[in-house]
Amino acid sequence: MGFDTVIRGARVVTSGVVSTCDIGITAGRIAALGTGLDAPEIIDATGLIAMPGGIDSHVHVSQPSGPGVEMADDFASATRAAACGGNTCVMPFCLPEDGQTLREAVAAYLAKAEGQCLTDVSFHLIVKSVDPVTLGQDLPALIAQGMTSFKVFMTYQGMRLTDAEILQVMAVAREQGALTLVHAENEDAIEFLRDKAERDGRIQPVHHARTRPIPVEREATHRATTLAEVADVPVMIVHVSNGAALEEIERAQARGVRVFAETCPQYITLTADDLDRAGFEGAKWVCSPPPRDTGEQAAIWAGLERGAFDVFSSDHCPFRFADPAGKDAPGARASFRNIPNGIPGVETRLPILFSEGVSKGRISLETFAALTATNHARIYGLESKGSIAVGKDADIVLWDPTLTRPITQDALHHGSDYTPWEGFEVTGWPVRTILRGQTVMLDGDPVGTATGQHIARAKPGVTP
Amino acid sequence: MGFDTVIRGARVVTSGVVSTCDIGITAGRIAALGTGLDAPEIIDATGLIAMPGGIDSHVHVSQPSGPGVEMADDFASATRAAACGGNTCVMPFCLPEDGQTLREAVAAYLAKAEGQCLTDVSFHLIVKSVDPVTLGQDLPALIAQGMTSFKVFMTYQGMRLTDAEILQVMAVAREQGALTLVHAENEDAIEFLRDKAERDGRIQPVHHARTRPIPVEREATHRATTLAEVADVPVMIVHVSNGAALEEIERAQARGVRVFAETCPQYITLTADDLDRAGFEGAKWVCSPPPRDTGEQAAIWAGLERGAFDVFSSDHCPFRFADPAGKDAPGARASFRNIPNGIPGVETRLPILFSEGVSKGRISLETFAALTATNHARIYGLESKGSIAVGKDADIVLWDPTLTRPITQDALHHGSDYTPWEGFEVTGWPVRTILRGQTVMLDGDPVGTATGQHIARAKPGVTP
Amino acid sequence: MGFDTVIRGARVVTSGVVSTCDIGITAGRIAALGTGLDAPEIIDATGLIAMPGGIDSHVHVSQPSGPGVEMADDFASATRAAACGGNTCVMPFCLPEDGQTLREAVAAYLAKAEGQCLTDVSFHLIVKSVDPVTLGQDLPALIAQGMTSFKVFMTYQGMRLTDAEILQVMAVAREQGALTLVHAENEDAIEFLRDKAERDGRIQPVHHARTRPIPVEREATHRATTLAEVADVPVMIVHVSNGAALEEIERAQARGVRVFAETCPQYITLTADDLDRAGFEGAKWVCSPPPRDTGEQAAIWAGLERGAFDVFSSDHCPFRFADPAGKDAPGARASFRNIPNGIPGVETRLPILFSEGVSKGRISLETFAALTATNHARIYGLESKGSIAVGKDADIVLWDPTLTRPITQDALHHGSDYTPWEGFEVTGWPVRTILRGQTVMLDGDPVGTATGQHIARAKPGVTP
Amino acid sequence: MGFDTVIRGARVVTSGVVSTCDIGITAGRIAALGTGLDAPEIIDATGLIAMPGGIDSHVHVSQPSGPGVEMADDFASATRAAACGGNTCVMPFCLPEDGQTLREAVAAYLAKAEGQCLTDVSFHLIVKSVDPVTLGQDLPALIAQGMTSFKVFMTYQGMRLTDAEILQVMAVAREQGALTLVHAENEDAIEFLRDKAERDGRIQPVHHARTRPIPVEREATHRATTLAEVADVPVMIVHVSNGAALEEIERAQARGVRVFAETCPQYITLTADDLDRAGFEGAKWVCSPPPRDTGEQAAIWAGLERGAFDVFSSDHCPFRFADPAGKDAPGARASFRNIPNGIPGVETRLPILFSEGVSKGRISLETFAALTATNHARIYGLESKGSIAVGKDADIVLWDPTLTRPITQDALHHGSDYTPWEGFEVTGWPVRTILRGQTVMLDGDPVGTATGQHIARAKPGVTP
After folding, report:
1. pLDDT, tens only, C180-237
2. What is the pLDDT of residue C2?
């Protein structure tokens, strides 16, 4: 057993167990776990924690965002930020431009990512049209190529699908063994409230949150799980923001529906009050669903603690604040309706959960690994990833659990010009990210070349 | 790295991941996971599954059971059966005889177990009296010795504690960092129904089930979780038999109470109709809580599938059927009240769950490992056990997932003269059990000497 | 106090109390309650029960039902049947024909009813289009004329509204103080299941029930109550068929939404098995939502018993069975999809509830009065009706609680050629129906002339 | 029809309907409802509301309260206050002194009440011992005498019964057709918290509330409804203080258990903060269960609005504040444990509900009548009372809905030296109370002689 690299003496975490040992790496894969391993390259990890590389299964990169608006990250900057935040794989959504087929969109995305990525990437698809080509040809072909999951939207004009359309998509998912992700908010109800708010002159950023209240998410969540029940397929509800929506998910599970649930850092740390900051400042926190209040944060935490959530992602969707191509888009100050939705988060997801969860004693290291890597890999079919186990990709992140410093925009590497967590104190930071055996981040800075690849995935792992 | 033994080529399962590799064992511990490992002793496990040795955290052995009644298993036979059923560690309950202190009882138990055991053992305590010596001296001393969990009963005359007493025990658990297990059935309600049944001449075994209906378990479960809420401690609800009781557990979790839940093979495979067999035959299935019906089996399965249960144990509590010291105790035919409660199961727990769960596609191998070993080790503080990971005890069971044969009393090794699952078809059997590197079962038969030890445990692992 | 008529000696029931006394009637109104009252016309009601005349707030009469299909009842036959079944007022729905405005439809309906009715009538509106004329002009005008309630459909192609449209209608209801009724079934989900059933050759009547399963009603009920929550208006969920939908209603109430609930005789007496009768026979029971099973019947009964339902109506929607303009419409035998939806019931609603409810001891006389008359009057603003109280219309029905006979088509007066309850045994029948002081039914037969009027209503009574 | 008295022109309310008419009274009973009624005595009630006389089915009068402690009201002062507060009947609890049998206690109570009462009274029993005499002789005899309801306590040392004892009492209730009332709080849990509070020096009045938190009431409520489920009897849960306890009641109802629910003014108007007033002042608000917070008030209101409560009572249990025989009992300042539990409220119950409920538009007049009179009469078998209907006792209260003034101790007639609602503004006051045709309160002052009688009751009315 000659290794290329050995990581020595870390507390090695997988979703089920922590054990202190060496990790032997050969040809980018984990070749052995043991003690006294040796290799030309030795990484001394004494006192550190070796985690499976973070997988962020919910990020938006270079996604078409409306006329004149541009996302703050391309693949180079997004994966650079991801690597610096302790990730070795991100899963962006592939959204067709108007007039593009899904396969054309995928081709364009692959081209954009090619040679740019510091982490691996693997695409989800977005189905915004249920024409015969999309359902009958593109989806089966792309699933066969390893893009085995797709998202549908119940909100956003131009993207939302009707229930009938969602059922058609789910029928394809069932036939092909793919997984459907749902963004669950009732667009009609939002429009109703939004129109009323505008008529009443309530146009500031905070009204973004007030016109997307919990009932519109709860309703859509109940509906999405019912559609899955009717179509007899598993479903993933993304970015669950509150206890009532989570209750709908658990009620569906108790009825026997296989429902997976995701939540994000914004729902355990931010509130709607953040959108209510003076002037236009609140626009920095405009995302959907909006952050709620501390009571709902507690409900999400309780859910994390009792295992109600399968994955913890960022929903990274970055725009620049001081930028007419970003938050300050034309009309944005005249109505919250025109503020691009989304916040940057791929670089801060893991430190936030580590600090709030592990360092504060709410969750164990094993649960952290499950929520941030293992479950993503299992559910989305990333077979070579998500665990520190013999034969898996050597995607490993070393954490220093004692390192304390605040999140600051200055220290981040994403393309946005702000972070919603400016000044947020964090204990526990990743200090080295290793992608298939190669170090891509060291002590907070990106290193090495962009060797990230697009990963074709197996069928979703939906058996509990 | 010189190993004593290498297990070659199995699909190695931990609670979070499956990977095909070799396992190197040195001095009874797992020294390495890798490929191409070599050792004087090679166990070829190609085509087999290597699981962490089963931990059965709910068994009764040589326990005082009333005048003239004797359990069918002593430590020799119980651990022999356990090993043959794929277990490497069992957790019996230590119940003081009348007049004995808890510490005296533990000493007597340790003496009985000494040199008899084919698997490791680790004792839970039973608190049936809340006198100052028990609470103030014995519990702290025994917890310090590594018996970090104890059960209280809400049922059984002579064992049941009042709510006030349970709260006192929980206060000790809180102070000492131990875990309280609760048998949740409302004794008063059972007595009420039992007296009425007897007055009405309903005295056959099936009335054991009918006088312990779901509401008495649901009520006690709600109460137990509330007492834990009031005392601000985690709690384990053992042998949950039905959906309504499980719902109470999940409601308590949603309120933020840390509640763990256990279920057993009888609740996914047997029903109250089994107690209604002709003549006295039904006595074979008399246990508490009783098996329910197929609807409740489905509710328990749904719970297993959505992760609502932490551990799957046997509640092995064996009596002989054709024996006046067993099920046929004096008075047993005159009233179900006098039938000793309990069924044998330590040897059949794992094959039943493997067959019904893994082989039928309801749960994954990882979940099987978590439910039968990893979670028991984590929750009960068995730090050296429960996972196939470097540094852990080499407690490993090799499974042949293709082997199909029925459960039959003839093939079992427990002390009872029957099995409740006679003729139950099973696909997937353990073919070799390895305790700290030594094979103790091969191809269904016990081998080797009784090297099992009593294991002192760490504090319970109650962080999610 | 000179009375025109005195009803002597009945047990007089109102929703709150039963008292034995005389009822003095003058000029069509109740002038006094007392003892020893005298008048030229004395009706001896000793041994009988005097109930407020039944109000059936959910009936369909002469409603456009698609090309070539005709309802089995016009106003003459429907109100004749109603009177014979113990009703003094029915509330039909006014549905515009294609191309008709709502006001034109109302005018046409009033013309059809004029001079034909043996009971009073009062129209609900159906909103199937949300154009500016309907919302901005017709609804306000018709509400001002006393048609203060309207129904929206979440199912039926051509009638269903989107969530956005329902919210617009609810906004009008809020502004004008009217009440919105919702038929809650998810059309898209039904279509999905229906298409699949047809593709699979499952085309018999029973598949009507199987393609409208409980989840599609539960989902739409959750959604309807959420839309009411968002629009901040009360809402009435009509014809609730099962416990899951009822649970959604009660959850909404617990959130503070004012939700009223209606159920019907079919949901406490019929099952989906009725649709599974040999050949095309099952078509007789095709209605939406379909009857469920005995478990759901029990859930509806439990709801009636705990006061979860406000009104008990018939959803009378009669078609002839052996008729190409009825159930045997073109294509009906080729697919259940083409069978006209609905069953006759205006004549049997009250006897069924009296027999199953009062005679079997499940509900009291007062609750019967509330569910069949008083609550309808209060909620829908029929101020002069619904109670036997001084000043109210003398709408009184005398019941003989001892009379036992089965329901048979021979003895009915509706326009349909069958009854879904053929042979259903009933104890307790109305023996005299009095409309504003005039007897319109005696001993089961219609008497007198058609003096029924259209009643303009006050604003809905939505304060509990 | 010669009447003794006619009440002219009031809006006459029963639980189901409001109608403006005259009420003719003869020989203490309602003889007629009509118009133009005449009599020697005419009471002009134009502009007023005629309500059925209030029935307060939960009051404590002259009840043994521990050594040295005395209730502030005897029958004279309690019924004087009751009449001034719009009541015509109160239902005190008959609690045996130590050594007294239940029948002796009843005899003593009847003697105390004899000739003293300005309203009618009817006793509930308290079962604090389940000896054979009480269960086998006294209860059947007293039920036969018309005391058809009894309360059991799950709290209070010396009064609380075990589950086994409660089941025995419920078995008697079932056999005899009586109704069991339950005070649902878990005494053991309270003791646990109370002991801890005292050990920690938390001894002020507010800790009364903090050591009786919602979980102890929720738990006991779940248990009480389960015991009723096991014993197969109806049950009344008295003084429900919060939404979680109410949820348990509604869950039990959904399981088919017949559960009635009571709440009181303190749970919609007071909070635990009232107990936290400076110094010993908070003792004025010490009652059990304690008032909660505004969130729970809202939950109770939502329950009242959706019909979840059957009766609204006072739980009048008056002690003087500045009195060593009252709140300032020996030891009371050293620990909240020694403060007598209870607050005065018989005189303020109805104005508070009228003002907060009817005047603020939350509930209708009919619902007010149901909650304060009709349902009490029906459920507890007061057949001659509870409604303004021909043949009923002429127990009528005239309300002036426009009268606004605050509650002040100065204006009250009870024996206590304070009111918990000092300064609470009320719109809508009773201006005349008529007991069986005789005015006993006029314009806020008691009038007439003490003609109140003890009323024997029929079996409870438990059919919905």
Report:
1. 999 999 999 999 999 999 999 999 999 999 999 999 999 999 999 999 999 999 999 9
2. 75
- B336 — phi, psi (to 5°)? -55, -25
**B33 → closest Cβ in A32, A302, A364:** A32
**Three-class SS of residue A264?**
coil
Which residues in chain C have Cβ-Cβ distances shorter than 8 Å to A223? 186, 219, 222-223
The span from the CA of A385 to the CA of A391, in Å, is 10
Please give the model's pTM, rounded to 2 decimal places.
Answer: 0.96
- Mean pLDDT across the stretch A252-270? 97
Chain B residues touching D188 at Cβ < 8 A: 162-164, 167
d(CA B137, CA A203): 67
C-alpha closest to that of A14 among A53, A42, A46:
A53
Q: CA distances (Å), C235 to each of A281, A346, C242, D155, in order?
A: 39, 44, 18, 42
> What is the distance between the alpha carbons of residues C338 and C330, in angstroms, rounded to a whole number?
7
Closest residue in chain C to residue D359, using alpha carbons only? C463
Q: Which positions ≥6 away from B107 have C-beta within 8 Å?
A: none
pLDDT band at D380 (very low <50, low <70, confident <90, very high): very high
User: In 3D, which of D209, D185, D158, D188 has the Cα closest to residue D337?
Assistant: D209
Q: What is the pLDDT of residue D9?
A: 86
Pairing of strands C5-13, A5-13: unpaired
Q: Count other Cβ atoms within 10 Å, centred on residue B176.
A: 14
**Element spanning D39, H or E:** none
Q: What angle do CA A238, A242, A243 make, to 5 degrees?
A: 115
Q: What is the pLDDT of residues B109-165, one digit of tens each?
A: 999 999 999 999 999 999 999 999 999 999 999 999 999 999 999 999 999 999 999
Per residue in A122-137, pLDDT tens? 999 999 999 999 999 9
> Could you tell me which residues are beta bridge partners of residue D10?
D21
Q: How many residues does chain D have?
A: 464
pLDDT digits (tens, 9 = 90+) for D71-87: 999 999 999 999 999 99
Q: pLDDT tens-digit profile of B231-253?
A: 999 999 999 999 999 999 999 99
Q: Chain A: give the shortest CA distance to residue C313, in Å.
A: 28
Contact C216/A193, CB-based, under 8 Å? no
Checking if the pLDDT of C375 tops 70, the result is yes
DSSP A128-143: ----HIIIIIIHHHHH
**Nearest in space to D121 (alpha carbons), one of D268, D273, D316:** D316
Residue A190 to chain C, least CA–CA distance (Å): 9
Query: How many residues comprise chain A?
Result: 464
ipTM attached to this prediction: 0.96
Q: Chain B closest CA to D158's CA: distance in Å? A: 15
Asked if B33 and A390 come within 8 Å (Cβ–Cβ), the reply is yes
Class of residue B136 by CB neighbours under 10 A (exposed 0-12, middle 13-18, buried 19+): exposed
Tell me how close the Cα of D339 comes to any Cα of chain C, in angstroms: 35
Contact A142, A107 (CB under 8 A): no
pLDDT at D147 (0 to 100)? 98
**Cross-chain residue pair D33–C390, CB shorter than 8 Å:** yes
Give yes or no for residue B1 having a pLDDT over 60.
no
Q: Which domains can be identified in chain C, with CATH numbers?
A: 53-367 (3.20.20.140)
Would you say the C-alpha torsion C192, C194, C195, C200 has a positive or negative sign?
positive
Is D in contact with A (3 or more beta carbon pairs below 8 Å)? no
- Nearest residue in chain B measured CA to CA from D191: B164
Q: Which residues from chain B sit within 8 angstroms of residue A366, using beta carbons? A: 16
Contact exists between A and C (3 or more beta carbon pairs < 8 Å)? yes
Report the 10 Å Cβ neighbour count for B381.
24
Distance CA A316, CA A397 (A): 20
- The verdict on a CB contact (< 8 Å) between B230 and D218 is no
pLDDT above 60 (res A1) = no
